[in-house]
Amino acid sequence: MPLTSADTPIAVASQPLPLPQDGGNGDARSAATDFLQIESIVLNLDASLRVHARAHFFSWTQGLLQSLIRHELLICTLCLGKPPAFRADGFSMTTPDPAMFSDVFLRDSAVAPALLKAWEERRYQPVVFETGNGPIPNGAFTREIERLGATQLLVHGLHDADGRAVSLFTFACRPGSVGTRQAYLAQLLAPSLHAAWVRTQMQRRAESGGSGDRAVSQSVLTVREQDILKWIYLGKSNFEIGAILKISPLTVKNHVQKILRKLNVVNRTQAIGKSLELRILNP
């Protein structure tokens, strides 16, 4: 479970950063620290506006943003559709292959829903917990971040007017490096993180010719495969899909494997996410 109770949010949106006070040497030192952090916040907000490509986002989050929230790994997650499917990307200066972490994050299909549920249960307040003592299982993703020495997680995101999650940001940090102030800063920076990262996704889609991708994917998926994909999106099992379409569960399984290969994904959750992205599915 998170380290703090659900009734006592770790950071309150209306809680301001400490204001500098006049006084002795100690107060002056505190005032200088606060002014430096306020300046860093402004610089980070300004830097986020200049992010338009993945390389820009990497440079910002693994450079200037580290002055506010020190982390070994950042996983950015978009929540697509209902029930939610997920698209994720990893950013890190600690490892040469941060994309591997986002792949493991998605492949370990219990992780993203567990983080999302924990955040929603905290009434959309930041969630802070230690690996092995939180909402996610001790699976492949947990093992990989522990290998980085990042055993403390800070999770926060954005939701829409209906309370549906739009994005989720997971900071994997060194033990003891996350407290109330970092949780507050995550609240402050989440809108800028979301806007900047979404711009990078739009840019990547434009560069790859998004409409062409959709046409190609639709042309390679048969009508039967598109039907099965629709029922997967609606949460049906292979057995249930077989009963609906009057085919055997084994036949459904074979179709699912073909869908995964054609979409170049590794599991059903990723297949739904990519199908929503390419608008093969229109919920």
Describe this structure in words.
- The protein has helices at 25-48, 54-61, 98-107, 111-121, 140-147, 180-208, 210-220, 223-233, 238-245, 249-263, 268-277, and strands at 73-80, 85-91, 127-130, 152-159, 165-173.
- The protein has two domains: 68-206, Beta-Lactamase (2-Layer Sandwich), CATH 3.30.450.80; 209-277, Orthogonal Bundle (Arc Repressor Mutant, subunit A).
- The protein is 51% helix and 13% strand.
- With 283 residues, it is an alpha+beta fold.
Could you write a compact summary of the structure shown?
The protein is of the alpha+beta class and 283 residues long. The protein contains eleven helices and five strands, in the order ααββααβαββαααααα.
Give the key terms.
283 residues, Arc Repressor Mutant, subunit A, 5 strands, 51% helix, 13% strand
